[in-house]
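I'll show one example:
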Amino acid sequence: MTPMRVATGSLRFECAAYATAATLGVMAESATAGDAATRMLRELSVRLRVSEGPLRRDEFDAVHQTRILVRRLRSILKAYESVLDRKVARHWRGELK
């Protein structure tokens, strides 16, 4: 599915408007913690990539919203470290500091 984008400069709206089939669906009952972590990380990483435009345009609240995304990514990497590749999770937590 191709991401949808609202024609607005607001980072909040741009992040909310991006959707993929994976983030719109409901988790299956058989989904594992690793599946949930992967899904959350994928969604937040898309939002982080979207935040680059508003940051470069120095839009209001862009820095704050991006910092929130980075903190959420680090938190998920730490909370789900036991079901993710620990070395990779630690590496990315360090990169996101």
